[in-house]
Write a structure and sequence with these properties.
The protein is built from 8 helices and 11 strands. Strands 9-8-7-6-2-1-11-10 form an 8-stranded parallel beta sheet. Helix 3 packs parallel to helix 4 and helix 6 crosses helix 8. The N and C termini lie far apart (about 45 Å).
Length: about 300
């Protein structure tokens, strides 16, 4: 049974890093490599090492959609070159000691078939395994997925995670949302046939090494309450829930023309929300780290 513990405000949260929706893949690997190095070097010169998620969009048979649109897919070879160059930029320009966790993130967008999900998970993990050998000593490479119930079936998303772990273990950082999941009351239905128990099983039941940075955007704390409830549900299933950090989108919301009236909170607010939700659910060890995602 979870234990209750009193928390005060998060006066000294853990490290906050910048993550990115990748928009710079051009089809020319040399151009993409240069851009990746430049962006990473700039980041490393001002931030302490931590988790950095690079979102490449929907996984396609031979590549990724990127966030410029599915009509201009980019190859996995270009993704690989980008990862190596970004890692070099982080390593060579870092002004702080410590290790960067670089995450190559795809998503479950339009992923409905379990057999395809398993195969795509294997492909993504194989890429991570292959490219890991080219990482500098200050950077560890991880696979990742933006898994959202509204985007695809539970069976396909679970199969993707299982396929990934059939190739490599200890190298997965998920950044999921909990679309429609209950905020209290334990197990209950989420969007698209998912449930709190299914989400708990996907993130903590397949492999205990999975690191978790759920999306915590809402200014009223709805997502924080959802994840505290999913953690409580996990405990009832005999699982060991652990949320390392949160993902916010304040930088994405600062993009001209973007409206985020209810979803543009700071990482400090997100951590405070998680702390309050954990307290109210009787949970210990709330997340202390954050990464804020934006475009490019």
């Amino acid at each position: 049974m979870a234990m209750w513990v009193e928390y005060g405000p998060v006066a000294k949260p853990g490290n906050m890093t910048t993550s990115r929706y990748v928009t710079w893949l051009t089809g020319d690997k040399n151009v993409s490599k240069e851009q990746a190095y430049s962006v990473a070097c700039s980041q490393a010169s001002t931030e302490r090492p931590g988790v950095v998620i690079l979102g490449f969009g929907r996984q396609l048979p031979e590549g990724v959609s990127q966030f410029r649109g599915r009509r201009s897919p980019k190859s996995l070879d270009e993704v690989r070159e980008t990862l190596v160059s970004y890692a070099r930029g982080l390593s060579e320009c870092s002004k702080s000691l410590g290790e960067w966790s670089l995450v190559a993130q795809t998503s479950n967008d339009h992923l409905e078939d379990a057999a395809l999900g398993f195969q795509q998970g294997k492909v993504w993990a194989s890429m991570i395994s292959d490219v890991s050998g080219a990482m500098p000593t200050a950077v560890s490479l991880y696979g990742g997925s933006d898994i959202e119930p509204s985007w695809g079936s539970y069976e396909a998303a679970l199969a993707w995670v299982e396929g990934f772990y059939s190739v490599i273990s200890g190298r997965l950082i998920l950044g999921p949302s909990a679309d429609g999941c209950p905020k209290t009351g334990g197990d209950g239905g989420c969007n698209n046939g998912w449930s709190a128990a299914k989400m708990a099983n996907l993130v903590w039941g397949v492999d205990s090494s999975t690191r978790l940075y759920p999306q915590i955007y809402h200014h009223r704390g709805a997502q924080a309450m959802q994840w505290a409830n999913i953690a409580t549900t996990a405990l009832s299933l005999g699982l060991t829930p652990s949320i390392e950090g949160v993902m916010t989108q304040a930088r994405a919301c600062s993009r001209p023309g973007t409206s985020c009236r209810e979803t543009g909170i700071s990482h400090q607010t997100a951590l405070e929300q998680m702390q309050a939700a954990y307290r109210d659910a009787g949970l210990t060890n709330p997340p202390l780290y954050a990464t804020d995602i934006g475009w490019g």
